[in-house]
Predict the structure of Glutathione S-transferase.
Amino acid sequence: MKLIGSYTSPFVRKISVILLEKGITFEFVNESPYAEQSGVAQYNPLGKVPALVTDSGEQWFDSPIIAEYLELLEAEPALLPRDPHEALKVRQLEALADGVMDAGLVHVRELQRPAAQQSETELLRQREKISRALDALEQHAANGTLSADNLSVATIAAGCAIGYLNFRRVSPGWCVNRPHLVKLVETLFQRESFARTEPPKT
């Protein structure tokens, strides 16, 4: 099995963590979708990472789809409830955390534009998205819906989202007034799967 992606992508990290937690052996193929000679499009027509190539040659892309495929392999631990309605609730929290990643990526790309071309309105819009989503995740961490003791695709996505905010220094004050979320990610970051997938410092 091959995972195609970039070491700095939070979506790729999410899938890497899932594979490590489930003990699924995989080869990591480091491909940046932004590189001039990027080969990502041969795995995903959209030219986005992550993409997964199975041993039989099947190609899967988009992190929620890949996560769903990995659940179908029935490798332990299960990261989604068996009950369809409960699984959908977890999927929605995963989507919320994925939205934080999306907003963080847009924010970073906007700051990479020449200063004269940057839109403060767009930057503010993304920061507001992140803030609202983190407030919602804090509530779920407070009531135990998100818990490091009950690992799920949602808790993994939340950890990867905040890891990306830290890595790119987006919303550096995110931890203020969100103690339950802080405790959640501090516990997650101590897991071997998160330690092994930490983005490079440079």
